[in-house]
Predict the structure.
Amino acid sequence: MTLIEVDSGDASAAEFVQVALPVPLARLFDYRWKEQLHPPIPGGRVEVPFGRRRLIGVVVSCSAGSTVPPGRLRSVGRAIDSRPLLPQALLSLLRWAAAYYHHPVGEVITAALPAGLRKGADAVPGQRERFTLSVDATEVLANLGRAPVQRALVERLARARTAATSEDRTADDREGDDGSLDAVDLQAISARWRASLAPLLERGAITRRLSTRLPLNRARDAGPTLAGEQRVARDALIDALGAYRAFLLNGVTGSGKTEVYLQSIRAARDRGLQTLVLVPEIALTPQLMARFSERLSGCLVSLHSGLNDGERQQGWLLAAHGHADVVIGTRSAVLVPLPRLGLVIVDEEHDGSLKQQDGFRYHARDLALMRGRDASAPVVLGSATPSLESMNNVLTGRFQELRLTERAGGASPPRLALIDIRRRALSEGLSEALVEAIATHLDDGGQAMVFINRRGFAPTLLCNDCGAAADCRACDAHMTVHAASGRLRCHHCGAERATPSRCENCGSVRLDRVGQGTERIAGALAEAFPDVPIARIDRDSTRRKGALEHELERATSGRARLLVGTQMLAKGHHFPALTLVGILDVDRGLFGTDFRALEQMGQLVVQVAGRAGREQRQGEVLIQTRHPDNPMLQTLVGQGYGAFAQVVLEERRIAEWPPFSHVALVRTDAPAPERALDALQSIADFLDHDLAIRGAVEAVQLLGPAPAPMERLGGRFRARLLLQAHSRRALHETLTRLVSVIDELDRVRTVRWSIDVDPVDLF
Ligand code: ADP
Ligand code: ZN
Ligand code: ZN
C-alpha cells in the first residue's frame, strides 16, 4: 500500500528545503539539501541542526533558491523517511490551520505525528500483540472474585475462541481465526484493560504472542433493520459517497444515529473507503468501540489519549498506510493521514471538547469538514442537540439536514416537567416532589438518576459569625468541601487543604457547608432510600483504576437503582432500566455570562433527559428551578430543543454573536494583575492604531481589555480582549498583523499571551 504520491518533478533539482520544526515560531526554516541524499520528500522527516541542538522536523516544500544568506544556511543532517509520512493535502491543511488559528506552523505540523515518530522512530507498522485464552473459562471465572474488567476480558476471549471453532464460520483466512484478539478488541472492554490483563498473563490463563499480520475484526451481529427515517438518512449518506457534502444528522436521543453511522461505514468500506469517526469523550470511546467491533468487519483502529505511545503509533500507522478501514478517535484523530478517506463522521458535534482549549486551539469539527472537502468525502455531523453554528448552516443551505424524529425500537420520548422550588423547603437540595417521584419510580421497578453538575459535598464553607468563606489561596474561588476525605479542594487549580474546624478568619466554630454537590446528594438519597444501591459517578468517585467501568456496569446492569452524577453521566450512555431523571442545578445556566451559556444549558438538559426511558418504559424528567416562568426554560421544556435553539439563534442574531459574527480572544496572564491588563492595553493600542491606518475601524470591534471573570487562577492574573468582526477575513488579517509584532510590544514581553480563534468559551 503506497501513501499519496508526491510530484517529485522539481524535487530532484531542489537544493533547499523548508522544514517545519517543533519550535514556537511562526515560520518554516530553510536548510540546504545534501546531494548525496535521495531527492527531498515533502511530508518526510529530516534531522537538522538548530542552534546547538539537533531537531527532527518535516519537509514542507523544496526550492531551487533561498532568501537566507548562504553563510547562515545549514545543511540537513539526515533524511529519515523515503516516503512521505504526511501526505501533501494534509500538509496543506495543517499549514492552513496554523495560519487560521495563529499558532506556530512547526508546532502544528510536528504535533500531527505520534510521539514516537516525532522522535525519529521507524514508520513501519511493527508487530502486533495477539491474546488467546489458554485454559478453561469457567475455571478462571470461578477464581476471579469481584474483578469486573478481568471477568469481561476472559468472557470476551472465551467467546472469540468459541467463534473460531464453530462450524458456521466463513472460510476466509484471517487473523483472529485462531480465537485470538488484539489490543483494539480488548481496549473496547475497558481503557484499563492492560493492567487487568497482567495478572492473568502471569498466571498463564491468557497467552500473548506477536504477529505481523493485519488486525482484522469480524462482525458478530448484523444489527437491527433500520426504520424509515434511518433508511432515508443512510441512503442519503451512501448516495453522497465520492463527493464532498456536509450533512447534519439531527436525531433525538436514542433515535438510532449510531445505527445509521454503522451501515454507512459498511457501505464505504465495501467501496474501499476509510471512515474517520470523531467522538468527544474518552469515556465514550471504549463503549462505542465495543459496539463497532460487534458490528463491523475489517481493520478498526481507535485513537485517544488513553493509549500508550506504542499503541497510538501502531494505530496511526495503520491509518496512514491505508490499512485501517475505520478510525475512531477523539479530537486529535482529525489530523491523522487517511489515504483512502471516504466518509467523515463527527458524533455529538455540539460538544465543546471537540475544541482544543490550549496550545493549538483548533476545532476538530471544523477541521473535519476541511478533511472531507480535501478527500471528496461526505461529512456527517450528528447530534440530538446541534450547535447553533450547525443549525445556522442548515438554514443557509451549507449543510443538508437529515432528521430522525422518533426514538428507535418504539421507545417514546421522555416527558419533561419543571418543579418550582421557590419558597419550598428543600432537604439537602432535593425537593419533596422529586423525592416522591423517585420513590414511585423505584416502586415500579424503575431506576432513577439525579444530575448535578458539581462534584464534592458542598461548593462553599461559610462562617456563620463573620460571613467569610474558605477561599483558594491561588484563585478567586471558594474551596469545595469534600466530606469523605475531610479536605477542601479548589476545582480550578487543584489546591487542597484539610477542612478547618474553625473559621480561618475569625476562629468561630460555627461553620456551614452551603450548597450541594454529588457527594451530598448521594448521602441524602442513601438516607432517604436506605435499602437501595446507589452509584455515584463523577471525577472523584471514578479516579481509582477500574472504578468508572465498575460504576457504569452497576448502572447499566440495573444493580444500582439510584444514580447520582455530573456531566460524566450525561453523554451517550444507555441505561436500559432508567425511567426517571432529576436535574438540580439548571438555574446557573440561565444567567451565565458567556454568550454560549444558554445554548450549553439547553444541550445539557436535553442530553441528560435523553438518558431516561430509552427502552419500553416511558421516561420522566423533573427539573428543579427557581425560575419556572423563564421563557427559555418554558420553551425548552414545552417545545423541545429545536424550538429552543431557534429562539437562542435569533437572540444571537440580534446581539451579533457567532454565528452572525466572528470572534477571537486574546488572553494574557501574569503574576500581577496590572501586568496582564497593561499588556493587553498595549495590544489594544496597537490594534486601534493599526485598524485606523488601514481604514478598518468599523470592520473589527474591540471589547476590553478586561479582567477575566475569574481573574486569579493558580496564582496568575488573567485578562482578555475580544475581537469581533462581521468578515472573517477582516478578523484574520487583523490577527495576522498583531502576531507579526506582538513579541516586540514592550509590555507584552513579560506576560504569557495566547490567541483563541472561534473560542467555545470566553474565560
Ligand atoms: P443514538 O445514537 O441516536 O443515541 P442508538 O443508535 O444508540 O441511538 O440507538 C439507541 C438504541 O436503539 C440502541 O440500543 C440501538 O441498538 C437501538 N436501535 C437503533 N435503531 C434501531 C432499529 N431500527 N430497530 C430497533 N432498534 C434500534
Ligand atoms: Zn468567621
Ligand atoms: Zn485554586
Q: What stands out?
A: The chain has a mean pLDDT of 90.
